[in-house]
Amino acid sequence: MRRNPRCPSCKIEVSRDNPFLPFCSERCRLLDLGRWLDGDYHVAGEKVEQKQESENQEPDGDDERRE
Ligand SMILES: [Zn+2]
Fold first, then answer.
1. Domain 1-49 belongs to what architecture?
2. Residue 41 alpha carbon to ligand 1 centre in Å
3. Tens digit of pLDDT for each residue in 19-59?
């Protein structure tokens, strides 16, 4: 008897031919990765960083130019 590994994300058995081992699919692999990345980011202020970046990337303001 052979035991198939189980997907850490959804706990179903994964076939040994599966290219996404130990996960059952790419989606579960990303889900699991995203879950612990998400836990890390909840403490830090991620939104503040994003806002600063978008402000720097817009040098031209159409409203202030009157021609
Ligand atoms: Zn899965």
1. 2-Layer Sandwich (3.30)
2. 23
3. 999 999 999 999 988 877 777 655 555 555 555 555 556 56
